[in-house]
Amino acid sequence: MSFNATTQAANVMDTLYASTDFSSLNWAEQKWVAWYIWWGSPVLATGMLSFLMHEVVYFGRSLPWIIIDAIPYFRKWKLQPNKIPTPQEQWECTKQVLWAHITVELPTIWLFQPLAEAVGMKTWQVPFPTLYTMAWQIFFCMFFEDLFHWAAHRALHTPILYKYIHKVHHKYSAPFGLAAEYAHPAEVMILGMGTLAGALVLCFFTEVHFISFWIWVIIKLFQAIDSHSGYDFPWSLQHIVPFWSGAEHHDFHHMAFTNNYSTSFRWWDRIFGTDDKYLVYRKQVKAAKAKAGSKEEFLKAEQELMNQVLAEGLKAENAVEAQSGKKTKVQ
Predict the structure, then answer these.
(1) Nearest C-alpha neighbor of 106 from the set 185, 169, 206
(2) DSSP structural state of residue 130
(3) Do residues 165 and 187 lie in contact, with contact meaning Cβ atoms separated by under 8 Å?
(4) pLDDT 10s digits, 254-274
(5) 3-state SS assignment for residue 244
(6) Among 11, 69, 138, 199, which residue is least crowded by beta carbons within 10 Å?
(7) pLDDT tens-digit readout, 172-227
(8) Which residues form the Fatty acid hydroxylase domain (predicted)?
(9) DSSP state of 105
(10) How many CB atoms lie within 10 A of CB 130?
C-alpha cells in the first residue's frame, strides 16, 4: 500500500471508526469495515459493493437455469416444454438486461448511499443488527414490495404503459431465468422502486442497516429469477410454502397476458380477484389429469389447455394494444 493510500485509510479510520472497538466485531463485521476503509469513501464503497453483488448474483443465479435449459432430461419439469430458449434468445436477453443495468440500476446504485444517509439508514457502521431484526425487516421489505409490485404491474398493463414500456418484458410467453430483468429501462426503474422503497420507508420508524437491505435484494434477485425460470420442480418453494408464488404462478401470467401480478406471494391476487383465470386453468388441468388414461394422454390434454390459454392471451394483448393503435405478436 502506498503512503497516500495508507494516509487515506488512516483518515477514514479516524473519520468513520474512531470510537469502534474492533475486538468486539465478528468476522463479517471486520470485513465490512475493511471494505469501507479500503475504498476510502462510503459512497464508492456502498456503490461498488451493491453493483458487484447485483451482477454476480443475477448472472450467477441465471447460469444454472441456462444449463438446465440445455439438458433435455429436465424437460419433464418444464412448464411449457415446447418452448425452450435458444442461445440467440439468451444472448439477446443478456444484452437488454445489461443495457438496463447500465442505464438505470448503475446510476441508482451510486446514488443510494446519499439517499440512505438522508433517511437515516446505516451503511458503513458496525456492528450489524441482530438476526431477529434483520429477519423481520427483510420480511417487511418483501411484503411491501409484493403489494407495490402488484399495483405497479397492473398499471403497466394499461394501454399506454404497456405499449411504450411493459411490452418489452412480454416478448416471451414462456419466460426463462435471464428474462427476469428483461425489460424497458423505465420498467426497471418503476418496479425497482418497490425494492428500494420498503427499506427507506422503514427508516422513518426504526433503525435499518444496509446489510439487512443488501440481504433482502439478494433474496429478491433469487425470487425474480426463479419465478421466471419456467420450471416447476417437486422441491420448488411453492410446494413447501402454500402462499409462495413461484415459477408455476408467474408462468401463467406470461401465457395468459393477465392474472397473477404479484411477485413473492399469492395473496394479493387472491384478495383482489386477479387470479380468476389462473384458478380456472388449474381446475381444468386437474380434471384433465384425473380423466387421462395415461401420462401421454394427460400431456396432450395439458398442451391443448396451454394452447387455449396462449390464444386467449394473445387476444387479450391485442385488445390492449388496439386501444393504443398497435397490434402485437407472441413469441
Answers:
(1) 185
(2) P
(3) yes
(4) 999 999 999 999 999 999 999
(5) strand
(6) 11
(7) 999 999 999 999 989 999 999 999 999 999 999 999 999 999 999 999 999 999 99
(8) 139-274
(9) I
(10) 8
Apex CA 48: angle with CA 46 and CA 49, to 5°? 65
Task: Give Cα 43 to chain centroid, integer Å.
Answer: 24
pLDDT in tens, 278-292: 999 999 999 999 999
Q: Could you report the per-residue pLDDT of 82-120, keeping only the tens digit for each?
A: 899 999 999 999 998 998 888 888 888 888 889 999 999
Give the Cβ contact number of residue 155 at 10 Å: 15
Distance CA 38, CA 27 (A): 16
Name the residue with cell 421466471: 228
Separation of alpha carbons 11 and 211, rounded Å: 24
Mean pLDDT of 64-72: 95
The alpha carbon of residue 276 and the mean position of all alpha carbons in its chain are separated, in whole angstroms, by 24
Beta-bridge partners for 209: 122
- Grid coordinates belonging to 290: 384425473
**pTM recorded for the entire structure:** 0.90
Is residue 43 helix, strand or coil? Answer: helix
List the grid coordinates of 117. Answer: 444517509
Task: Please answer whether residues 309 and 252 qualify as being in contact, where contact means their C-beta atoms are separated by less than 8 angstroms.
Answer: yes
Secondary structure letter of residue 102 according to DSSP: I
d(CA 103, CA 105): 6
Give the length of the chain: 331
Q: Are 42 and 16 spatial neighbours (Cβ–Cβ below 8 Å)?
A: yes
By three-state DSSP, how is residue 166 classified? helix
Among 259, 311, 279, 278, smallest CA distance to 153 is for 259
- CA-to-CA dists, residue 190 to 57, 104, 193, 197, 246, angstroms: 21, 10, 5, 11, 21
Distance CA 118, CA 15 (A): 18
- Within 23-130, residue ranges assigned H as helices are 27-39, 42-69, 87-100, 106-118
* Dist CA 246 CA 262 (whole Å): 10
Report the C-alpha gap between 100 and 122 in whole angstroms.
Answer: 27
Residue type, 222: F
Cis peptide bond N-terminal to 127, omega within 30 = yes
